[in-house]
Amino acid sequence: MSKPPFQHTLYGLRVESDFPLPGALESSTPGPADVLVRRAQNARPVASHVTNVFELTREDDGYVFNFPDGVQVVINRDATTIDVSWPEAFATEYAATYLMNVVMAFVMRVRGHETLHASAALIGGAAVAFIGTSGAGKSTIVAALALRGFNVISEDVVAIIDRGVKFGVVSAHTHVRLWPDVTAFLFGSADALPLIANEEWKRRFDVREHFAQGVFELARIYSIDDRGASAPRVEALDGKDALLELIAASYKSAAPDLTMSPEEFERLGRIARHVPARLVVPNAELATLPAMIDAIVEDLGADLE
Amino acid sequence: MKREDRVTVRDGVMFNRVGDEVVLLDLDSGTYFGLDPVGGRLWDLISGTASIGEAIDTMLDEYEVEREVLESDVLRLVDELEQRKLITVA
């Protein structure tokens, strides 16, 4: 891939962009693009300085993300075009990293798909999703699974294709973002992996060699609990607790009005009824990560036999 | 509250049943309310056609519990749902 336009596959969409998207797989199949990504020369006026992680506003012709550092992403009403502007001093890769998770989660929601703040891996031929609060270990788990030889489907955003009583998880991109301590534990040194373009600390683990491309049936959801003092374990998660965990994991930060629609509530209920869920209780020590992976694989293995 | 009172679920309240349990969503406020299996069964009855008294009678047949205990639990739950503006009672 050497010159624009660049053809990617990202969250199951054919994305054509006039700049490279880090971690997105190159698309080799012909066909019209589902989404066009372009660099905008001029940003839209911003009412006031953005102080949150980002601000998302709805305008007559679409939606606008404004990030504190001046990066702006404008998405049209049906999420078929994405115009990105950024300060001249920033590298293209820096601006492109904004697209890969929170913006694409929003694009998938506008296109009618459920999106969870979650990671996913392929185990035993089926997709397994990991939900939890920021810092719970969603990225750490899929990175550890990749090093065990399992394939990663997505990190940070799980986009779900609704098939009624079955649900498909669609591949995202190949970059898993890891904190320095996790990088040091998994790879021997925090410097073993390159920094993510706009980050001072988080490292980029490219799982291209352990990446599952396609759409995979969602077979299990693991909710990562707060870290405890005992050995890592997997427990039952049923009924309303499973649904409430899914609701909390819904990528609502990417919803235009930050509320849940009736359709989404109904869909999350169906997911809770038809996809088994478990609670994973990690130990506070990173050294117990292999034992937690063992517990997850054992839990799945018993069900997949 | 009286035995013959019936419950009306407020517009804008949705519910999802997962197994024996129910999660209610108030679309206006964006808040959620979870009901355990007993609460979920009560919800099924009062959000249908049963009066509060009929729901209590039905649940007495289904659960091994003293009438006074069940009545207190039912009335407390109905009152809480009303306080949270998820239902009206009349």
Mean pLDDT of chain B: 93
Main β sheet profile of chain B: 3 strands, antiparallel
Per the CATH scheme, the topology name of the largest domain in chain A is Rossmann fold
Secondary-structure content class of chain A: alpha+beta
Helical fraction of chain B: 40-55%
Give the H and E element order of chain B. EEEEHHHE
**Overall CATH architecture of chain B:** Alpha-Beta Complex
Structural class by SSE content of chain B: alpha+beta
CATH architecture level-2 label of the largest domain in chain A = 3-Layer(aba) Sandwich
Biggest sheet strand line-up of chain B: 2-3-4
Structural overview:
The complex is a heterodimer of chains A (305) and B (90). Chain A contains 6 helices and 18 strands. Chain A has 305 residues and is an alpha+beta fold. In chain A, strand 9 and strand 10 form a beta hairpin. The radius of gyration of chain A is 19 Å and the shape is globular. Chain A starts with 5 loop residues before the first strand and ends with a helix. The model of chain A has no long low-confidence stretch (mean pLDDT 91). With 90 residues, chain B is an alpha+beta fold. Chain B has a single domain, classed as Outer Surface Protein A, domain 3 (Alpha-Beta Complex). Helix content of chain B is 42%, strand content 26%. Chain B has a 3-stranded antiparallel beta sheet. The model of chain B has no long low-confidence stretch (mean pLDDT 93). Classes of the chains: A alpha+beta (305), B alpha+beta (90). At the A-B interface, helix 4 and helix 5 of A face strand 2, strand 3 and strand 4 of B.
